[in-house]
Design brief:
With 241 residues, the protein is mainly α. The chain has one domain. A two-stranded antiparallel sheet has the order 1-2. α3 packs parallel to α9.
Length: 241
Amino acid sequence: MTKSHFSSSRLHLIDLLIRTAIFLFVWYLAGFHRKILFDLGAASLAGIRVYQVLWLAVVLVILHAMLPVPGKNMSSGKLFASRYQPSGPHTPELELKIRDYSRKMAVTARRSVVFFAMLLLVPGALFVVGSIDTVSVILFSLFYLVGDAFCVSIWCPFRNWLAHNKCCNTCSIYSWGPIGVFGPLVFIPGFWTQSLAFLSFLALVQWEYLRIRHPERFFELTNTNLRCSNCTGNRGSCLRT
């Protein structure tokens, strides 16, 4: 593993640890000191509420996934033309392989819709019937946030059971993360929560539209930036190392 691979793996692990710490902190306050949790969320910084700052931070994270900003990794950036490096001319044989790849990815998308719907409907149904409150829905969202980082840094069930990709770079549902993490917030009435769910849905629509419109950008046979020889990520988690 090269220095860049090691650095990427370490950053992913640090991200997982930070998300886990946030989840455990909120879970502890929600379970034992709920008033403190509410006071923290409603606290004001120069006239701006803490929850508004957190909302803005989440918006920026989702927008980062949707825009071709500098420094974006290939996993989330492969939908953009700027990250597409053609492998060569599109011969009739290659076009057939692209169509076959597109059909396989369509199957993956259908399977993923079912799984992600379950992730959203579990907290949603519990909330609608009154079994959990808004804080619990937010805890579900934070738990999914930890799970998102776990998939990248430790082990990804989507790769093994749904997408069957070799790594994050070739994953056709990589940027479904925002809708999985923030989608449950749609059940909490209010602008600050439902706007995040809506923006996450837009990120999903953008990803799927470009995947269908430009499948060659997502296929390592046609986009050389996705190949192992050009990988700068965590090669240790690749199924073909």
